[in-house]
Amino acid sequence: MKSSERVSEVPGRRASGLSEKYCVEIYESRPALGAAVAADVAARIRQVAARKAEVRIIFAAAPSQSDMLASLVALPDIPWGQVTAFHMDDYLGLEAAAPERFGNWLEAHLFSKVPFGAVHRIAAEGTADEICAGYAARLAEAPIDIVCLGIGVNGHIAFNDPPVADFHDSQAVRVVELDGVCRQQQVDDGCFARFEAVPERAITLTIPTLMAADALFCAVPGARKRAAVKAALEGPISTDCPASILRTHRNCTIYLDREAAPHG
To answer: Glucosamine/galactosamine-6-phosphate isomerase domain: which residues (predicted)?
Structure first.
């Protein structure tokens, strides 16, 4: 059931001859947004689990996802034992135990909270090429059913920042250089104390990997995301705003609070 705090729903539309099938839902508050996304993700998990043994999900790690994850782990009757979890990006150059690592953030907020069937983290040790190849092999074992993601201040999805984003990337997982806006966001989000501490390189799932999933649930709260959301929803479909590609997915819902909504 949708939250009573939902204030509007905007279906996708046709533009420039391209069928856009996304849907935008806007909520009064960040907690209401998180509860709505969690309810929809839980419903999708139950649907997939009813027809096959494994539900494969990719999760984003960011403070913007905290409300959704807290709501999700509190919901009853989710068949977590059938869920295989992945995450979509992580830093290079941090110690394995560093709390800033996304795998560790998800451990604290999600992986340790419910009994997953399996959890596959991006490795903290090994060469970058080995880490990418190993994770790509894990992802390729079966189709991805669900992606839970957000949109960055610069319009990125995962760590596909505008300078490196590729809608037709031939790799499933790759090493990227993080742009300055992305690194500053990590400081502004409270994940790092200073800009210089944010790693310059990371490993990310590529855009085709994310877009190949059956269903995308994109949670985007906060005023700092408003310009990126406006570009993603109203601008051209371009790597200048990588999140704009979400409009072409066959089953993508974008959840906003009033602060993030382009027209408030």
So the answer is: 30-251
